[in-house]
Amino acid sequence: MAFCSVCKFLRRGKYFVLLLLVLSVLAWIATFAGETMKSVQVSPTTVQTVHKGETLEGELNSLRSVTDLQNTPAPKVKCPEESPLLQGALKLSFESSLTLKDVEQENKAVAEGQYRPPDCTARQSVAILIPHRNREKHLLYLLHHLHPFLQRQQLHYSIYVIQQAGDATFNRAKLLNVGYLEALKDYNWECFIFHDVDLVPENDYNLYICDKQPKHLVVGRNATGYKLRYKGYFGGVTAMTKDQFHKVNGFSNIYWGWGGEDDDLRIRVELQKMKIVRPPPDVARYTMVFHKRDSGNEINKDRMRLLGRTPQVWRKDGLKNCLYKTLSIERLPLYVNVTVDIGKPQAS
Ligand code: BGC
């Protein structure tokens, strides 16, 4: 009997353990479900956080675009027709102690010979071409005056010095053709100034820009009492647009030594029915830095004969057949130095 009661108890205990087991499983499920609920409840916060993040990012982005706007240079206005920086007649000085370093220091805004006005878009982009050989001091004086002069005129400009290599007779005109062709490889310059190294402009109202017609800028110079040398004089410093110069096939390549090449260019201009214009005489004034005639640039005795042939040969002789070998192109702080082998005089 007693044995039977034990058996009954054990059987009931089994159910009790089973019940306990079921209850703990339920409790565990309940706990797990609670966690899940909790995480579901957390999610809105997370969503909110993400949302907040997005807003912040948006705000940052709009801030960033405002800063970007501030950093992007505003489109520059066109420079005024008359620069407010012009000073008129200048007192020129030629200090023998001047060095290239001094001129570089004075023209920090010039890089590789080139300058753009900082506050406005220049009305013209101008390449200044200076043919050169062994005239370092003249070049230094010219650079010293020309850089600030051009900056006061608010021009986008670059200075090219074209050096004739070797000791064959000098050929100013061919060097200028080379300068034109080489400068156009750098930039689509709209205006070219063909500039002697020994002429320094005295008045910054003498604008180094091109006109509708070829322009002659040297009406007078100190050495000749500031008088135009003769009616058709077209030497020293001249300004022609890219198209005007192209139209006349540039300079002739066959004038070796001093004289005639500028008269030849005038004939080409006249043959194209263009008319030479000049600024007023009180403005177009130059100081010529004194020098003796260079050896290697003797007077060209053949020039009158050559001038007589210009109407027949200008189409073939010029930019179209300008053969040369560029020996080096140095981008110096104040100018681009193009050294070139242009050959030597050929019997013609
Ligand atoms: C020459 C020119 C020169 C002018 C002024 C003329 O006889 O042919 O090349 O520019 O004189 O010196």
Automatic annotation (TrEMBL):
Q: Where in the cell is it found?
A: Golgi apparatus membrane
Query: What is known about what this protein does?
Result: Responsible for the synthesis of complex-type N-linked oligosaccharides in many glycoproteins as well as the carbohydrate moieties of glycolipids.
Q: Which EC class is this protein assigned?
A: transferase
Q: Domain of life of the organism in this record?
A: Eukaryota
> Per UniProt, what is the membrane topology?
Single-pass type II membrane protein
Gene Ontology MF terms: metal ion binding; N-acetyllactosamine synthase activity
Q: Which CDD domains match?
A: b4GalT
Organism whose genome encodes this protein: Myripristis murdjan (pinecone soldierfish)
Enumerate the catalysed reactions.
N-acetyl-D-glucosamine + UDP-alpha-D-galactose = beta-D-galactosyl-(1->4)-N-acetyl-D-glucosamine + UDP + H(+)
What pathway does the UniProt record associate with this protein? Protein modification; protein glycosylation
An example GO biological process term is:
carbohydrate metabolic process
Task: Show the GO cellular component annotation of the record.
Answer: Golgi cisterna membrane; Golgi membrane
The text of the family note is: Belongs to the glycosyltransferase 7 family.
Q: Which residues form the Galactosyltransferase N-terminal domain?
A: 79-211
State if Cell division is listed as a keyword. Answer: no
* Cofactor(s) the protein needs: Mn(2+)
Q: So what EC number does this one have?
A: 2.4.1.-
Q: What is this protein called?
A: Beta-1,4-galactosyltransferase
* Record keywords: Disulfide bond, Glycoprotein, Glycosyltransferase, Golgi apparatus, Manganese, Membrane, Metal-binding, Signal-anchor, Transferase, Transmembrane, Transmembrane helix
What InterPro entries does the database record attribute to this sequence? Galactosyl_T, Galactosyl_T_C, Galactosyl_T_N, Nucleotide-diphossugar_trans
